[in-house]
Amino acid sequence: MRTAWSRFARAAIICIVILLSGCATAPGESYQGLAQLQAGFGDVYLYRTPGLYAIGQSFDVQVDGQKRANLYNASYVVLRLRPGVYDLAVYPGGMSQTSHASVKVEAGRRRFYQYDFPGGLLGNMFFIGAAVEIRQQQQAEADMAGLKLAQDRLPGPLGEGIAPIAAEKGASTLVKSAEERTSAAPTGRANGTKEENLPPIPASPLVFAGNTVPVFSQLVRANYPAGFKSILNDAGPSRYLQEFVPEHESAGHWSQMMTLSGIKDLAANPEYSTQRVAEEIQSQFKDACPFSYSGKTLSQAETNGVEMDVSVFGCGRHTTKAGIVSETTLLVVLKGQRDYYTLQWAERGAPLAKPIPLDLAKWIRRYRDLGPVRLCARIEGEQSPYPSCS
Predict the structure, then answer these.
(1) Do 242 and 135 belong together in one domain?
(2) How far apart are the C-alpha atoms of 218 and 260, rounded to whole Å?
(3) Cβ contacts of 176 within 8 Å, gap of 6 or more
(4) Which N-terminal stretch is annotated as signal sequence (predicted)?
(5) Do 205 and 64 share a domain, yes or no?
(6) pLDDT of amino acid 51
(7) Core-most of 185, 251, 291, 341, by most CB within 10 Å?
């Protein structure tokens, strides 16, 4: 998987979903016609037509929650199943939504489905609007002409069916290793190591100023270091992204970067928590530098009525447009009433050939410098600087 930290921070959330990374292609032959049916089984065809959006990304095809295949751009999958009702799902990865269809399989019959998702200007990293849609055989056969089989082979006539396909190298995984998580809580509450047991926290040499930003349904309040300038402010229909770097630095060459992001309506998805969002972001770092990755959770608690996950992690050796560097990031994930938000503080340094050491005292101090990070209700008609959230 190819990842650059201009994508890590700029899209710590975008990076989760791996929309444009890699160049995976279907391994099978071009469509030559329907597979021969087998007694006692039914065939389910699932296909994805060519498109530029997420062109290099393959999606997990799941049957009753178990991965059965990868669905590539311009490809199709044949699932040979015994009669019954199944949950057919397509999961693009990361924090994108999973699309489901209830499929009734009958012996000696075929069913056809298309995984359809918005592309072009309507494309979105969470695949909102995507669906697994039933198709008539005539349309499906016309659509599949020119597509490649997403499996090594078609199901044979002797009953072997289709074996599950292993996850691709570099596919998104959750970071759940116990060694990578710690109970040290910088606020001295929940989960936690008591305040007096934390490393000594030196005073911050930086000057900070409070900043309140409206992001979707709420206001996000945090302290930002002085001397940083905005280099990006991107407010889309389903995501929000704002970046800051020190004066005289740029998006391509920076020593530190602050990133505020928002994901609209994700809080309504019960599959997600602040911990899972944090773990999926961390997993992208680990995939990019598996031999030099380090990570620690600093806190998982409810603070001022807001569910929050605070962690620090990084790569000892990471290739960027600016050269080979080390990179460490403080990540704060907040669950709002409707949306999720992240605040990140990334720092680059000299590359290391080993897992990057994490200076917990330094990063706990930086977390405190940012805080208290808060979410506030938006008040109709209220203008910047939003005194209700000061």
Answers:
(1) no
(2) 13
(3) 279
(4) 1-26
(5) no
(6) 79
(7) 341
